[in-house]
Design a protein that fits this description.
The complex is a heterodimer of chains A (256) and B (228). Chain A is built from 11 helices and 7 strands. Chain A has a 6-stranded parallel beta sheet, with helices on both faces. In chain A, α7 links the parallel β6 and β7. The longest helix of chain B is centred in the middle third of the chain and has 41 residues. Chain B has 7 helices and 1 strand. Chain B has 228 residues and is mostly helical. Among the domains of chain B are: 55 residues, no CATH class; 73 residues, no CATH class. Classes of the chains: A alpha/beta (256), B mainly alpha (228). At the A-B interface, β1, α1, α3, α4 and β4 of A face β1, α2, α4 and α7 of B.
């Protein structure tokens, strides 16, 4: 018979609670047509792409070293979808560099599809979406080389990044590009903040797609995680209070 | 953008069902077991092994893409075409020697490939891997030290209140890490520990909790709505 795996019961219950809260918050936001707080800098993406087109310089995008199973990479690809459409709209050349082979396939399919849909399939070449290397520092060297040689006007790097992030970002900074970064890796975030004109911090990487969308449903979905945050804050407060009075009930429940 | 209203075609519907079915299955397998009937964990592991097959095909696509991009460079005699020649020579020679003489060689028992070829290739592969690739990798990694220095210089300019707090906190942590700090004043290491254990950890956990919630919403959206 079906049975919950010991040690994961509380996680399953919490997941259901959070999902219900997110669904309800999204439903209410959708009904009331709530306005959400924006992410600073997202509205500048279009302007930067337009400027790149005017300067006749490419727009560069890389989703980092993550694979297709990394949520950061998938979130980066959502942003790429938006960037491709605006590059096509403004006739800006796009260069995408990948580290993971499956991500390479996905991005190639996505970018080629967008060009074909816009009737500009001739503008998509083998050099639009490039595979660099699966090895971390070979990838970093390859991306640094592209930034130096091709001199793009904008450097978008949103996805999963490790130590190579700073190398890419500092090279971009040296080349005086507009830089737009984003990651949930807290070890790399300080480097993003010091080198980028705009940075998506943590959760913003996943929600940027919603903010950029004109779809009311996607916008209302942004309210959902806030409901989850309220639950997390309440749990933390309850845990801190209970533990302060020597009660470890919550610790026991969460350990189930 | 992905969120815009799109009509779902039959193909999209089929993909939606596959995406939801597999995604839901993997989510459920993490929490639920069916002992005595079916080993769900084994099934999920077996399914994951198919990724290896997909990855192998993807590897060929990567090599093809690299070759095409650099072949165009050479053909059009662009400014950096010489580097493209070097890259292609390195790529294919490493590929050939790895297939013959690396730990993942195709025929390690010399059933098809003559033993003399393997013996000839082994020191070449070892040289290419250990004397060149590993060292170049370390060199690129070591560049980080210089990049960190320039990034830190930029970050530590006290242009605003936030930057000044960052500068002071950073200097205190750096000072607390040095052996001489405790000789000057033992309080430096205490301050360093406090900064790392409380404000730093609190900030990091805040980002991580929010990111985890973002992942849940993002994943659910991906599972239930295609095209994304």
């Amino acid at each position: 018979m079906l049975e919950l795996i010991p040690g994961r019961v509380s996680q399953a219950v919490l997941l259901v609670v959070v999902l219900v809260a997110i669904y309800e918050a999204t439903r209410i936001a959708s009904k009331r047509k709530l306005k959400t707080r924006g992410i600073p800098g997202l509205d500048r993406i279009d302007g930067w792409i337009e400027e790149a087109a005017k300067l006749n310089r490419p727009v560069f995008f890389t989703p980092g070293t993550g694979g297709v199973t990394d949520p950061d990479t998938l979130a980066g690809l959502s942003l790429l979808e938006y960037i491709v459409q605006h590059c096509i709209q403004h006739n800006a050349k796009l260069i995408v560099a990948n580290s993971d082979l499956q991500v390479q396939q996905m991005t190639e399919d996505m970018v080629k599809g967008a060009y074909t849909k816009a009737g500009k399939e001739k503008e998509f070449t083998a050099e639009t979406v490039r595979y660099v290397s699966t090895r971390q520092f070979a990838y970093a060297a390859g991306v640094m080389g592209i930034l130096r040689r091709e001199k793009p006007a904008v450097n978008f790097f949103v996805g999963l990044f490790q130590a190579e992030a700073l190398q890419i970002a500092e090279t971009g900074r040296t080349e005086a590009l507009y830089q737009f970064g984003g990651t949930t890796n807290t070890d790399q975030l300080p480097f993003f903040l010091t080198t980028c004109d705009q940075t998506l911090i943590g959760e913003e990487v996943y929600t940027a797609q919603g903010y950029l969308s004109s779809d009311p449903q996607a916008i209302s979905e942004l309210v959902g995680p806030d409901a989850g945050k309220i639950i997390a804050i309440l749990l933390m407060l309850a845990g801190a209070l209970l533990l302060s009075f020597g009660n470890s009930l919550l610790v026991y429940l969460l350990g189930l | 953008m992905s969120g815009e209203n799109k009509k779902m075609s039959r193909g999209d519907l089929g993909l939606q069902i596959i995406i939801f079915g597999l995604g839901f299955f993997y989510a459920i397998v993490y929490y639920i077991a069916v002992p005595g009937v079916i080993d769900l964990q084994a099934v999920s592991d077996e399914l994951l092994s198919y990724i290896t097959a997909v990855l192998t095909a993807a590897f060929a696509i990567g090599v093809i893409n690299l070759t095409r991009v650099h072949w165009i460079n050479i053909k059009r005699k662009r400014a950096t075409w010489m580097f493209s020649v070097i890259l292609l020579v390195c790529l294919y020679s490493m590929l050939i020697f790895s297939l013959i003489a690396s730990p993942f060689a195709l025929d390690p028992n010399a059933t098809v490939i003559p033993n003399s070829v393997i013996q000839f290739s082994t020191p070449i592969w070892q040289f290419l891997y250990y004397k060149i690739l590993v060292n170049i990798n370390s060199s690129i990694f070591s560049l980080l030290a210089f990049f960190i220095a320039s990034a830190a210089y930029r970050a530590f300019k006290a242009r605003s209140l936030e930057a000044t707090i960052l500068l002071v906190a950073g200097l205190l942590v750096i000072l607390g890490q040095t052996p001489i700090a405790d000789v000057i004043w033992p309080g430096f290491s205490v301050i360093r520990d406090w900064i790392m254990a409380f404000p730093n950890t609190a900030g990091q956990r805040g980002i991580l909790i929010a990111a985890a919630l973002g992942i849940i919403v993002f994943s659910v959206r991906r599972l239930v709505r295609y095209p994304w």
